[in-house]
Structure formats: C-alpha cells, structure tokens
Design a protein that fits this description.
Layout (H helix, E strand, L loop, with lengths): L1 H7 L1 H19 L3 E4 L2 E5 L14 H12 L5 E6 L4 H14 L2 E9 L1 H7 L4 E3 L4 E3 L7 H15 L4 H25 L4 H6 L13 H7 L8
Parallel strand pairs: 2-3, 3-4, 4-5, 4-6
Antiparallel strand pairs: 1-2
Helix pairs in contact: 3-4, 4-5
Length: 219
C-alpha cells in the first residue's frame, strides 16, 4: 500500500478518493444496486425516476440486472411495499434464481412476498417485517370498472361488486397458499390477515423464527 501510494502521489490519491466517493453517492441514490454477490433493492432511497414503493417497472429491471450478474446469491430488501402484482412477479424471479433474502431496515406488505421467495431468509438486527391486509383504493376500483366493464360484461357496479367479492377470496387463498408453500406455519399465515390495510403488524424476531418466516436453510 505504501509503495503504491508513493508511486501514485498524494494528489492522485485525493482525486481517486473523490471519484470513489462520487460513485458511492451515485450508487446510494439507486434503488437497485449490485454489491459483490448481493443485489440491494431499496425503494426508500430518494429517486426522481420511481416512487418510494415497488412498481411494475421493477420487474424488467430485476430480470436484466440478474441476467448480467450471475454471481448474485442474495437479495437485500428495504421497502414498505407497493404493487401486489409486481411483488408476486419479483418473488417468482427470486425463486427462479434460487436467491437468499435478507431484510435491512423494513420489509412490509408486498415486499414480504419477495422476501418469502428466498431460500435462506434472514433479518438484520434492528430490522422489521410487517404484515397487513391488502388494499385497493376507491380511485383504482372505479378506474378498473370503467376500463374492464366491457371485457367482463358488467352491466352495473353491482355485477362488478359481485366479481370483486369472488376475486378477493381467490386472491386471499392464493396468497395464503404461497406463504404455506414457502414454509410459513398455517396458523401464522392466517394471523397475518387480521391487521387492516391502515395498520401493520410487526412480529418480533422469535415469532418470525418460530413461524418459519425466518429460516437459515431451505427445506
């Protein structure tokens, strides 16, 4: 190190340090960063390109990054959730690549699906994992009705309401099945349905370990 520093010169070291600091700053402003064998997915960083949640656009970016970085073995998560569809698609990608998952900070709502897709699932000290029922905003409900009423043959909002009732039950069934298939205790999976969409349940580490949410090795 001393020989290299002497040949390079202290002025050069200062320039190099500045460049490295700039690169680190740029990396910290991205929601998807490769760091060795880790892929860091942090939707909470300030980013003008994307909102601070999981979005459908993340799907293609995940596929591209993993295709170009085959040495990645672990996905590091920090996200308060977002699109249910995007979370499910990212979960399939994680399972397909056989990645381990680790929560740093928080993983809530749709982020949990991505986390549960991991083979080995860990949580950093001080981190937390949160559960609540899914939510569909009134604006999104109205928009979906107007966009799809002709496709589904809904003659009135009452037909639409009946479809929502049936579709919601199917979605809950599929979500609970996914959790149980990923090794989560059935009783715990059912309990995650209790908190409403405006609340979040954060089980402690011992509860997460006992229920199979956290695990050191794949089944």
């Amino acid at each position: 190190m001393r020989r290299w520093a002497r040949n390079f010169g202290w002025a050069g070291l200062v320039v190099l340090a500045s460049v490295m600091a700039g690169q680190a700053l740029e990396a910290s402003g991205s929601r998807l960063v490769v760091d060795g064998t880790r892929l860091v997915f942090d939707t909470e960083v300030e980013n003008d390109e994307f909102p601070d949640e999981i979005v459908n656009e993340d799907i293609a970016r995940f596929r591209a990054v993993l295709a170009d970085n085959r040495d990645v073995t672990e996905l590091e998560l920090n996200s308060s959730g977002g699109s249910v569809y995007a979370g499910q698609e990212l979960a399939w990608i994680v399972m397909d690549y056989g990645l381990n998952t680790r929560v740093v900070g928080e993983c809530t709502s749709a982020c949990v699906d991505v986390f549960l897709a991991g083979a080995r699932r860990r949580m950093a000290l001080g981190a937390k994992i949160g559960f609540h029922r899914r939510f569909w905003s009134p604006e999104a409900v109205a928009s979906y009705y107007e966009e799809r009423r002709a496709d589904f043959g809904w003659d009135s909002p009452f037909d639409y309401g009946s479809w929502i009732y049936d579709d919601t039950q199917e979605e809950v069934f599929e979500h609970l099945t996914f959790m149980i298939d990923r090794g989560v205790a059935p009783a715990f999976a059912v309990k995650t349905m209790r908190p409403d969409s405006s609340d979040v349940w954060y089980p402690n580490r011992l509860q997460l370990m006992a229920s199979g949410v956290l695990r050191e090795a794949a089944d």
